[in-house]
Amino acid sequence: MKLRKLSALLLAGAMCLSIAACSGGSGSSTPAPADTSAPADTSAPVASDLKVGVFYYQYSDVYITSVRTNLDAKLRVEMRNAIKRIQQQVGITTIYVTHDQEEALAVSDRIAVMNGGVIQQIDTPKNVYQRPSNIFVSTFIGLSNIMDGRIEARDGQTLLHIGDYSVAMENLDDSARDGQAVKVSIRPEEFIISRDGSQGIPAIVQSSVFLGITTHYFVETEDGREMEVIQNSDIWDIIPDHTPIRLGVQPHKINVFTEDGSQSLIVRRDHS
In angstroms, rounded to a whole number, what is the distance separating the alpha carbons of residues 167 and 5? Predict the structure, then answer.
């Protein structure tokens, strides 16, 4: 299988490999046009929804499978769970082709993230998401809010300053220097919203989306930066639009990188 024009390729697997966000290469087939003579039933899988091929490599069978996204959300989850269960029962290497990063995280044993054909990180899905090796991986896998920061060593503590907001960091490695400018990657769920506190990054709620378990807030900071914040839905109310808030962070979850974004400054604790 030849892949060309790779800008960002997601591979996952020791036993299960997922491929996402890649452009097609030579030898790829073009699906036949759909029959438009009758309405399509998009709620149930059809023959074209699951494509499985087999090839041989180093004396081992490698299965390639792809689930079409015209399945509804519930069936997609059931289908990917079935694929993972079958793959584990059969015990063969599987390449799962998908443009859905959530699917890649769900079915994979290991993930390799590539940029321009260069592998940036090979790791478990948990580590790739929670402890990306550089800012490219952090922004490629999932959502991340990137902010400028500065490190300060004071009275035996290491502080991370994001604007006027400061938080103590206990997991920076020895290469972090006093006064060093850094990039801070904060995933939407790593924020803590305060409506009446004085500590935190000042922001204004622009809009919100209620999704049941979680509520997504779209906020704007004082310097005009737009960010997404995810919080567990409150039983009482949703923060109204145009409400001033303060954003704190969970220091054990956020990621800190060198100013050029090429290297993580967080001490790695292996979650493999």
Answer: 42
C-alpha distances out from residue 266 to 70, 145, 251, Å:
40, 17, 11
DSSP line for 107-159: H-S-EEEEETTEEEEEE-HHHHHHS-SSHHHHHHSS--EEEEEEEEEETTEEE
Show contacts of 52-59: CB within 8 Å, 24+ apart: 55/1
In single-letter form, the type of residue at position 73 comes to A
For residue 44, the 8-state DSSP code is: S
Provide the whole-model pTM.
Answer: 0.75
Q: pLDDT for 169-188, tens place per residue?
A: 999 999 999 999 999 999 99
- The rounded distance, in Å, linking the Cα atoms of 86 and 90 is 6
**205-238 in b/e burial notation, b at 16+ Cβ within 10 A?**
beebeeeeeebbbebebeeeeebbbbbeeeeeee
CA 4, CA 25: separation in Å to the nearest integer? 5
| pLDDT confidence of residue 215 | 96
Strand segments (E) across the chain? 8-12, 16-20, 50-57, 60-67, 93-97, 111-115, 118-123, 145-154, 157-162, 165-168, 181-186, 191-194, 201-210, 214-221, 226-232, 244-249, 255-258
> Is the Cα dihedral 158, 163, 166, 167 positive or negative?
negative
DSSP tag of 65 = E
What is the C-alpha separation between 55 and 49, in angstroms, rounded?
Answer: 20
User: Comparing C-alpha atoms, which of 199, 186, 81, 83 is closest to residue 132?
Assistant: 186
Q: In what order do the strands lie in the sheet with 145-154?
A: 165-168, 157-162, 145-154, 181-186, 255-258
Tokens 């997922």 sit at which residue? Answer: 18
